[in-house]
Each structure stands twice: as C-alpha cells, then as structure tokens.
Amino acid sequence: MSNLSAFDILGPIMIGPSSSHTAGAVRIGNLVREIVGTKIKKANIYFHGSFKETYQGHGTDKAIIGGLLGLTTANSKIRNSFALARQAGIEFSFFPIDLSDVHPNTLKLELFAQDEKKTVLIASSVGGGNIIVTELNGIKVKLKGEYYTLITLHHDQPGIIARISEVLQQYNLNIAEMEVLREHKGHLATAIINLDQPASEQVIELLTAIPDIETIKLVNPIA
Amino acid sequence: MYNFKTVAELIELAEKNEVSLAQIVIRREMELAEQTEAQVRAKMISSLEVMRAAIKKGLQEDISSMSGLTGGDARRIEKARLAGKTVVGDLFSRALANTLAVSEVNAAMGKIVAAPTAGSCGILPGSLLTIADHNNCTQTEIVDALFVAAGFGVIIAQQASVSGAAGGCQAECGSASSMAAAAISYLLGGDNKAITSAAAIALKNILGLVCDPVAGLVEVPCIKRNAIGTSNALTSAELALAGVESLIPADEVIVAMKKVGDALPCELKETSLGGLATTPTGCKIKSQLRQNSLKTERNE
C-alpha cells in the first residue's frame, strides 16, 4: 500500500452509496461484459450473503445491470440502468442464492449471448470497489480486471504453454502472472495469462492457430 | 523522492524543501502518476467540481434514498438556518447542511467523491468548502487544501485503515474528520504544527467509534455521523488554530486508532451484527425492508 495515490483517498468519483455494494458491482458488470465479449441477450443474477440482504438499498441490482451495459462507476445513468437495458433488448432477473463458503459480497451470473452461448460466472466485491471473478464456466479462476488477460481453453497436452509463450515473446509481450488449471488430466484445461501490454488481433490469430487450442480470448482491463 | 509514510516524514520533507505540505503531496502525486503539476491539479479540480455539484443537488432537490429510509435532512437544516433558527450560528449550520447534502446524495445513488469512503463522503466537502467559501478562498487555495487532506488520508490508510470493515467508523468518519481538520487549518494559514495538531485532535475525539449500519445500508446512522464528523473537524481546527496542541503526536494517534480498530469485535465493524443495527428498531427496519424486497421480486 506504499504507493497509494492521493486519488485513491479522495476518490473514486462514483455513484453511491457503497464502494463495495455499488461501485464494485458496476465493475463486476464491466469485467463480465469484457469476458463475454459479445452482446448479452439475457442475464440471470443470483445474489449471495450481504448482496442478497441489501442489494436494493445499495442499488447493487441497478449497478450490475449498468456495468453489463458498459456504464462506468461514475455514470449517473446507473440509476436508470433497468430502463436502458430494456431499451437495448436485454432481459434480466434477480434471484437469491446460498453459495456457502464464499465472500459475503458474492454473486453468480448466468449470461446468454446473442448466439445463445451461455457463460456462468461467480464474482465477489472485496472492498473499496475492488473485485474478483472466482469461477468461469465451472473453472476456478482469479480475474481482477487489472491486466490484459488471455483465457484459453486447450487440450491438456505437453508443450502448449511453450508454444503460447513463443508467440508472446515474438511480439515482445511480457507475462506478468500466469496460471494453468484443469479439471482432469488429459482433458480440457484453461490457462489464464496476464500481460503487461495488450495483445493485437494478429497475436490472437497466431495463438488460435496452435493445434490443441480450442478457444482463446483477450479480456481488457477495466477502469 | 517525495514519498512519506508518516506525518513526521511529511513535515520533514516540507521543511527540508522549504515548501508547503500541499506542495509535497502534489510532488509525490506527480512522481507516482508521472504527470505534471498542471495535470494532477486538473484531476483534483474535477473532484472538487463533483463535490460542489453534490452539495448543490442535495440542497436543491427532493432526495430520497433507495430504501426510503433517509433524505431531506439537509434541506431541513437549510430551512432552519434561513429562518434564523440556529444553535451555534449561521456558518456552522451551513456546514452541517452541506455535509448532509453530500451524504444524502450518496444514499440516493447520486455522484460523489469517496473521501476517503462513500460512507464518510460528506465530511470533507461539507466542512472544508463551507469554510473556504466563507473566507472567499480561491480555487487554487482549495485544491491545495484538498491535497493536504489527501496527504493525511494516505498516511492514515497506510499506517492504519480507512475501511469500516477493518477499523470501524473511527476509520471512516474519524479519518475523514482528521483529513478535513488538517485541510481547514492549512487553508486558514495554520503552521505545520497547527495542521498536524488539528489532524491529531480530530482523530482522538472519535477513537473507538463503531460501524453498525442498520440493515447493512450506508444510511442509519452513517449520514448523521457525517454531520458529527464535520463538527469534529471544525472544533479540532478551531482549537489547533488558536494554538491548542495535541500532546499525543498525530503519528501515535494514528497507530492507536489502528490498535483500537483491531481490538473492536467483528460485530461492530460493518457486519450489522451489533450496536444500532441490532436494536429492536434496527431489527424491525431490517425485516421491513426485507419484506418489501420480497414483494418487489414477486411483482417482477
């Protein structure tokens, strides 16, 4: 915390009332929008813990919808996000849920894109507007929206990571953090690669061309 | 290098460089952000504009929070002030109205500057800007004072905490009062000793205050505690500018605040499991709000 800015103290400029329950929920929406990458048609949102108890009083519901629409934490339109979502043809519903042993400010999202593709995420707002996506389509992850992040779905084979880092090196992209996760040996696995610089479309094309990589997605950092 | 971890280091840097405390905080920010003085000042001006807009909105519009629990108190104070009904005097009443205005705008999903948090966002604008306008201070002088407030906030956040969940209300409204007391003392020409005494006195006054929001919302008692935070800031600045010194140095008060915060049970740190949140009325409000939310779900 030794590099705390004056504007971390006098800031953020945000729509109230709560940095964790309002601004954090907007940022979860912003990051999830980046992760899904295409237009969202329908959103089922499940509130857990403190979110479940207080979401209306904190406007967490309006905040998450505003975030999914791409509004940032200081945008006054967040108050009217439900109407904006309806205008944009997005269906949304809220439900209570008990996710057991997770952070008290946690929510689960089921999102359906225009192409009917479903994305399921679990995310928490951990204080001061900071957030973390902890589960993406059943895989445990740690996405905070701080980096340019590559998310792969690949066949669990030797050499995949080497081939990915070869491409990244070729384009002078530095890996800040990396994690490889899998459900079962030899099946599908996911690599989360946090980059200091953005990866160009060309890089994504080269990575997609690697055999055994099913999909690869670039998630941009959020404000 | 203009980095500082303690109040003593901040003062030392200012004295060594023969510049104001504001200038040290500005130079630290320029280094951190790799920006010019004009750029970091412009950023603070944007924050100042948001603060002013929130005061205006809170005083002019009919405000109600999302839960319906709060709203309208800033205008009540303002109405009483304009009718000449005030206990302490016009200026103090104006500071309270401005403070409540910002906190009520926050509870109603309006735009505010977290200072240092959303729950304590009324204290700094409510106290500092009221005093600044009364003294016809320039925008540059106010921006300098805001940087002083931020400098003390950076120190408190690093040595202790500015989160209610970590340190109770003393960490939120206490830190905000301390930052505001320092900023007001700076603005009115206090020397470095007066500025640090003001910061220390404000934080000492509020040590141990618990965070116990009713129904978990940033409303009851948070909004009124912002008004108390403003009176704390004004009282502390008044004492310090008159030459009253804090016998316990500001840095030691900050560490004491951290230790008190650690010693507070978790029931009294934003969990709504104690204090006002668990009074019979607090519990009743919570269950009523819950029933309302279930009703809305069924209607949708």
UniProtKB/TrEMBL annotation, chain A:
Top-level taxon in the UniProt lineage: Bacteria
GO BP terms: gluconeogenesis
Cofactor(s) it depends on: [4Fe-4S] cluster
Pfam family, one: SDH_beta
Keywords assigned by UniProt, alphabetized: 4Fe-4S, Gluconeogenesis, Iron, Iron-sulfur, Lyase, Metal-binding
Residue span(s) of domain ACT: 149-221
SUPFAM superfamilies: ACT-like (SSF55021), Serine metabolism enzymes domain (SSF143548)
One Gene Ontology term of the molecular function aspect: metal ion binding
Annotated pathway: Carbohydrate biosynthesis; gluconeogenesis
Catalytic activity: L-serine = pyruvate + NH4(+)
Family: Belongs to the iron-sulfur dependent L-serine dehydratase family.
Protein name: L-serine deaminase
Organism: Halanaerobium salsuginis
UniProtKB/TrEMBL annotation, chain B:
Family: Belongs to the iron-sulfur dependent L-serine dehydratase family.
The protein, known as: L-serine dehydratase
GO MF, any single term: metal ion binding
First-level EC class: lyase
Pathway field: Carbohydrate biosynthesis; gluconeogenesis
InterPro entries according to UniProt: Fe-S_L-Ser, Ser_deHydtase-like_asu, Ser_deHydtase_asu
EC number: 4.3.1.17
Obligatory cofactor(s): [4Fe-4S] cluster
One GO term of the biological process aspect: gluconeogenesis
Naturally occurring in which organism (per UniProt): Halanaerobium salsuginis
Keyword presence, Metal-binding: yes
Family annotation (PANTHER family): L-SERINE DEHYDRATASE (PTHR30182), L-SERINE DEHYDRATASE 1 (PTHR30182:SF1)
Catalytic activity: L-serine = pyruvate + NH4(+)
